[in-house]
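Run log, item B.
One chain of 284 residues. Sequence copied directly from the ordering sheet:
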Amino acid sequence: MQRAMLGGLITGSLGGLLGSIAVLRQLSFFSDALGHSALLGITLGIILGVNPMLVLIPFAMVFALTVNQLVERSSLPTDALLNIVYSSSLAAAILALSLVETYRGGIRQLLFGDILGVSNIDMIVSIILLIVALIYIATSIRSQVLLTLNTELASVAGVQTRWHRMAFIVLLAVVVAVSIKAVGVLLISAFVVIPACASRLLSRHFTLYMLVSAALGGGCALVGLLASGITNLPSGPSVVMVQFIVFLIALSFSSRPFRKKRGFAQTGLRQISDAKRNDPRTSF
């Protein structure tokens, strides 16, 4: 149970941290599409007779880069393109899984997750990912803020927008892939979206928004796991329900729910200006 609690804390914090940026960049549907498509990567691992995680992580990275290229080059709306990709991948995965007789009993774990089934290797990978995510965001915070709030301004200011966009998408894809074992395919997007939306309702400063989102993600995971242990209910859905309750509480405390706060972009840009004045380097 201690390993499950630690795994939930790391998974929730990662989802909240990256979700804070993903939501503002309108990538929330991307995490959902990746989660559903990841079932195909898991299926490939099962068919090949290897640990599905060894196939899932490279699959998620290739999927993220491929979708990013399709979005950049296609004239179709992004949400429509993602819907086509993830529906096709999900259909292929279901057809392939129907041929694997020995794994039919594990479909429920794939769909809803099993935090108690997280292994030591999964824990190590999650910890490494958390460290990588913290280092990447901390060392590129000004670029992340500017790229999130205004892509054109970021390009003018010298931010390598294409590189940062691809790096973030790949990092998000790997985090989603690693978290699927604990959360499940159907609920993975909730770990990315709900804490970020709750934090968005409560925060006006960009950095505080990211920190609160990560804290809510980790905290909700711990409370949900405790509730799951007490009530003997599935862990993944329990965590998501706790997240939803927290979102409703944040919504009730927000003076203008579902309205874009005008001061949020200004505080983010002001944060960049202050950092630039205090730093003799002007490059991002």
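Observations after the first pass:
- The chain has one domain: 2-278.
- The mean pLDDT is 79.
Flagged for discussion on Thursday.
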